[in-house]
Specification:
This protein is mainly α and 315 residues long. It is 72% helix and 3% strand.
Length: 315
């Protein structure tokens, strides 16, 4: 009888150990590990926040002041006068329009050509590695250098390669930077950002399941059907990443415009307008107000993209 009574007692004693609940010592160790991780990450987080918040705070501070470094220095608070002056300028809305047109044009070219180049580079060919390096190389060229190359080597109306090409077909050479200034900026910036889009899309297309394409081909699906219903949906997330990253950087485009047109002929973006206001009028407050408007525009575009395009990231 004693043996039979001891069995339920042993079972009752073993029940808490088999319940799957972590012991108090394990919870304490987890808390200590998390606290140590936060402590080690704290310096980097503080440095990153300071790196972002200090310039932003100074921009907001100076946007409410009339600060002329070469003409009297700090002349006191002006409230929202700088914001009103900047947004009421005749060049403000054209600069916003030029910014959006350039960004949209570059995105359209780089995404469409990037998909095509990614599919082409994914095909077996002789010297495939060399070709990929050559395609990606323009991304590592500085924006100022690439703009100078395009301005002097390709778009020069007298000695440029495009001018000689036009003459070879009996056409009058086009003065690119005056007659097609916005298109020229879009072409230059697209040439620089196309390798980035191609690299991201090529990486995505290499992860495509070949069995799906082979099965569709065996079922008699034509190439354009396979592209539309298999390849393109597979690339949707990569295209989303390309659009989001490029938009962030393209909203602040400056070097290409400064080297080529200097904001003339409808190429004055919001970033270049801020530069002109600060450099020409030496009004730091007015330029800071323009910087706040640029931040607002960037956030509006980012929210729009995250709502419309960024849904693919959650799919």
């Amino acid at each position: 009888m004693a043996t039979q009574d001891s069995q339920p007692a042993d079972g009752l004693m073993a029940a808490p150990a088999a319940s799957g609940k972590p012991a108090a010592s394990d919870l304490g160790g987890t808390r200590h590990a998390r606290a140590a991780a936060r402590l080690m990450m704290a310096p980097a987080v503080i440095l990153l926040l300071g790196w972002m918040l200090v310039p932003l705070t100074m921009t907001l501070y100076f946007s409410f002041k009339k600060y002329l470094p070469l003409r009297g220095g700090d002349l006191g608070w002006v409230g929202f006068d700088n914001y009103v002056r900047f947004v009421s300028s005749s060049a403000f809305w054209p600069s916003v329009q030029a910014t959006l047109v350039i960004v949209g044009g570059v995105l359209a070219i780089t995404v469409v050509l990037g998909v095509g180049l990614a599919i082409l580079l994914n095909q077996p060919m002789w010297g495939q590695g060399i070709v990929r390096v050559l395609v990606i190389a323009p991304f590592f060229v500085m924006p100022t250098v690439s703009a100078l190359v395009w301005k002097n080597m390709f778009m020069d109306p007298v000695n440029g390669l495009l001018a000689h090409l036009w003459k070879a077909f009996g056409a009058e050479p086009l003065v690119w930077l005056t007659q097609a200034s916005t298109q020229s900026i879009i072409l230059i910036v697209s040439w620089q950002w196309l390798p980035f889009a191609t690299l991201i899309l090529l990486t995505a297309i290499q992860s495509l399941d070949r069995e799906q394409l082979e099965a569709a081909e065996m079922d008699g699906a034509p190439p354009h059907k396979r592209f539309a219903f298999i390849t393109l949906p597979h690339l949707s997330r990569a295209i989303t990443v390309v659009v989001l990253i490029q938009t962030i950087f393209l909203l602040s485009i400056f070097a290409e415009i400064f080297v080529t047109t200097q904001g003339a002929f409808g190429t004055k973006t919001l970033t270049y307008l801020i530069f002109q206001r600060v450099l020409e009028s030496q009004n730091i407050g007015l330029g800071s107000a323009g910087g706040v408007y640029a931040i607002i525009l960037a956030n509006i575009v980012a929210i729009f993209l995250m709502r419309i395009v960024g849904k693919n990231l959650d799919a």
